[in-house]
Fold:
Amino acid sequence: MKPIKVGLLGIGTVGAGTFEVLARNQEEIRRRAGRGIEITMVADLDTDRANRIVGGRAQVVSDARAVIANPDIDIVIELIGGYGIAKQLVLEAIAAGKHVVTANKALLAVHGSEIFTAARAKGVTVAFEAAVAGGVPIIKALREGLTANRIEWIAGIINGTTNFILSEMRDKGLDFAAALKDAQRLGYAEADPTFDIEGVDAAHKVTLMSAIAFGTPVQFDKAHIEGITQLAAQDIKYAEQLGYRIKLLGITKRTPQGIELRVHPTLVPARRLIANVEGAMNAVVVNGDAVGTTLHYGKGAGSEPTASAVIADLVDITRLHTADPEHRVPFLAFHPDAMSDLRVLPMSEVVTSYYLRLRVADEAGVLARVATLMADAGISIDAVLQREADEIGGEGSTQTDLIILTHDTREGTLDAALTKVQALSSVLAPIVRLRKEELA
Structure:
């Protein structure tokens, strides 16, 4: 059987890795796919660099549309990124009857519904394993491996840059700015790390996982997003003293009221496996009613780990290339006519537990006043840690930190209570509030 012919749009870090791994493991991949898979055409604006990488093993062009227009190309790999030209090229490839493989989580999180609808209409596949958690096959696990389960919740460390920064802050006692500089110096953070450190990248990924887990449309615009830029080193230290570690988590949960979809720094018990995922690694915890809790761990970025996921998609498409489109695995796991209209909850309706840090006057009765206001709101306190004043401001200090852990409460209820606590004359600075998840 003749090989499947592939066109590659963009031969940057991941594209180069894909080209090299596919060439290196060609025989192994052919045995698994049932036929050869060859990248025969590469489009990149930097044709000199592209030619150096492919070394005459594929045709190099500067115009991506020349790849799409080539009738011999069966599958188009989109590794350009972003929302702009990438969206146009993906839709043009679909219109031309090409299957598409992409690592572009931003594109699919924002425009996935339009792209999947177009692909269904043309009877082609859009595969995106590489869009979430790099080399960790979490999309296949959710869409196929766990298909017998009613998924209850997912919580993931799905951005290696922020996890590296948080590991540096914890291990070395650095503040955020110093840890970010370290990450940039070592190549773990981009020169402009905004999407990573503000939580946007993680939100793109958890949006896709949520849609697959619960059979809903992709709804990135409804995700709650907080990054790590305001996280203080002392909160990481206090969390550790209380038996927790702080991770930037993408969380999506099924509740009787709707779906939670959120990204934010989160206290996780140090005994949980995911709390011990350090550096630039990724990990996703999935809880299903039949299987219980599963952990999926590995490299979330990099040339060859991400290439591993891209090529896995190529193999899947090759196996099903001649299959009836109606019998392929649906893009978002559920058939289009069985999608749910479950709403995404606003944060005010989310129920979880909290870590609070209050800078207060070191005087009698402060804790009692705070506790009374919390009790009046129906908020139960789980634990309290009060620092000695001289630990905070040196000998003779008149200020101290009061750390409170709450039991589960509705966020809107907590917000109202904190407004009253903040108004106390003995509370001397804005209250720090972080969410806490037991992930039991």
Observations:
- The first helix runs from residue 13 to 24.
- Residues 9 and 22 are 15 Å apart (CA to CA).
- The first strand starts at residue 4 and ends at 9.
- The chain has a mean pLDDT of 94.
